[in-house]
Design goal:
Layout lengths: L13 H20 L3 E2 L5 E3 H4 L4 H7 L2 E3 L5 E4 L4 H11 L15 E10 L11 E10 L4 H17 L5 E7 L8 H7 L2 H4 L1 H10 L6 H6 L5 H12 L7 E3 L13 E7 L8 E5 L5 H4 L5 E7 H10 L13 E3 L7 H13 L4 E3 L7 H11 L3 E4 L2 H6 L2 E5 L5 E4 L1 H9 L1
Parallel strand pairs: 1-5, 7-8, 12-13, 12-14
Antiparallel strand pairs: 2-4, 3-4, 5-6, 6-11, 7-9, 9-10, 10-11, 14-15, 15-16
Helix pairs in contact: 1-5, 5-10
């Protein structure tokens, strides 16, 4: 038996899990402030739903297999194609219900795991969490600008000060074949010389990059950037980048990526407009625009820039100790009363364990306070409240302890 996780898959112990939950809760609060609603879809889809939507590379990286019923299935590769399936299934006049039951525009956020059989490296895994926001059913540039603004607000709320939102329009690439676009998409990572060399090797013109860089900003992008600024996005954060490609085949208009200063790994999220994808399922086109956060990279950048609040070390506010077996019920009653006052409380579980060990346990977990209820405290109808940081303790009434712990 191999006692370890599969390559590219991870466990998240409490300290890391708390950080992940903090980011998720922060993003949810921003998404909902813009009117986006939660959506969840299955981990497995029929293989034909997912294949052919991400290009040749995406199909190679997809986890696919035959289930016990002989069906060809695939694991969720991203959350955009499942969204397209949901809209076709519940929002189209051609849906199985015979009438749409999703109001349009449909604004949703989705925070779930996706799976890719990719080569693992720093910041890249085979199972990872994606956080997406999408608006389906609106062609308005305001929908694009709102995505940009909500992305900007998300990174601000997480504490980032120096980040850029690079923006382009896929129409600038004209009739370039997908293979050429994929090569150009490597420009920021590999540099101009190496990308030009690969273009020539694959039979494309060397000056493709120069031609792109010389193009003027499309009117569509001018409008979107102007509206995003009116929604509170700082002018210096919006960067028009005519060589920004994003490799996925389904983009039809605006494309964006976010990069963070002093975080050299690469973009921490990207997205754009994809007006034709849903039509593959719904037999009619649905305009759509969205963004996917690179959750692990965002988390890593926050760690490097010390953006997590110190209070995340432990969600438990106090440990209620057990002095001895005779006083166990009294300690249980105290812990229940603390929880009734919305104080996160852990109760020591074993009888007849030395107080020294209980205090050491609180220290190891980073619990800031310990309550001791011994015979003397019970007789006086008080508790001992010990501050684990200062090591100071005092006799207080339970009401006074609640007041201190509530601050």
């Amino acid at each position: 038996m191999i006692i370890q996780t599969l390559k590219g898959f991870r466990d998240f112990l409490p300290q890391e899990a708390r950080k992940r939950q903090y980011v998720i809760n922060t993003l949810k609060s921003v998404f909902e402030s813009y009117g986006f609603e939660p959506l969840e879809t299955p981990a497995l889809e029929y293989e034909e739903i997912l294949t052919g939507k991400y290009g040749e590379e995406g199909d190679k990286l997809m986890y696919r297999f035959t289930d016990n019923g002989g069906r060809r299935v695939a694991m969720r590769y991203d959350q955009t194609v499942p969204l397209a399936r949901v809209v076709a299934q519940y929002g189209s006049v051609n849906s199985p219900q015979g009438q749409p039951i999703l109001p349009l525009p449909f604004k949703r956020y989705q925070i779930q795991n996706v799976w890719r059989a990719d080569n693992t490296q720093k910041g890249r895994f085979r199972e990872f969490l994606q956080c997406d926001i999408d608006t389906v059913g609106s062609e308005s540039p305001t929908a694009d600008a709102e995505i940009v603004a909500s992305v900007n607000a998300s990174f601000e709320k997480l504490g980032f000060k120096d980040f850029m939102i690079q923006i382009n329009d896929r129409s600038l690439f004209g009739d370039l074949p997908p293979q050429a676009i994929l090569i150009i998409d490597k420009l920021e990572k590999q540099g101009k010389e190496q990308v030009e060399q690969e273009l020539v090797e694959k039979g494309f013109a060397k000056n493709l990059i120069d031609d792109l860089v010389s193009k003027e900003q499309p009117a569509s992008i001018v409008t979107i950037m102007h509206q995003a600024k009116s929604m509170g996005v700082a002018d210096e954060r919006l960067i028009f980048n005519p060589s920004l490609a994003r490799g996925l085949d389904y983009y039809t208009g605006m494309i964006i990526e976010v990069t963070i200063a002093n975080y050299p790994v690469g973009s921490v999220g990207g997205g754009g407009r994809y007006d034709k994808l849903i039509g593959m399922f719904a037999k009619q086109d649905y305009p759509a625009v969205g963004f996917a956060f690179g959750f692990d990279r965002v988390l890593e950048a926050m760690n490097e820039q010390n953006l997590f609040p110190p209070s995340l070390t432990n969600g438990t506010r106090v440990l209620v100790s057990i002095f001895n077996a005779e006083l166990e019920r009294d300690s249980i009653a105290v812990s229940s009363q603390l929880r009734a006052n919305d104080i996160n409380t852990e109760l020591w579980l074993d009888r007849d364990v030395k107080m020294e060990r209980q205090l050491k346990y609180a220290d190891q977990k980073g619990i800031p306070y310990v309550i001791v209820l011994g015979p003397e405290e019970k007789e006086k109808n008080v508790v001992t409240l010990k501050d684990m940081k200062t090591r100071k303790q005092k006799l207080v009434t339970l009401e006074e302890a609640i007041a201190t712990l509530s601050n």
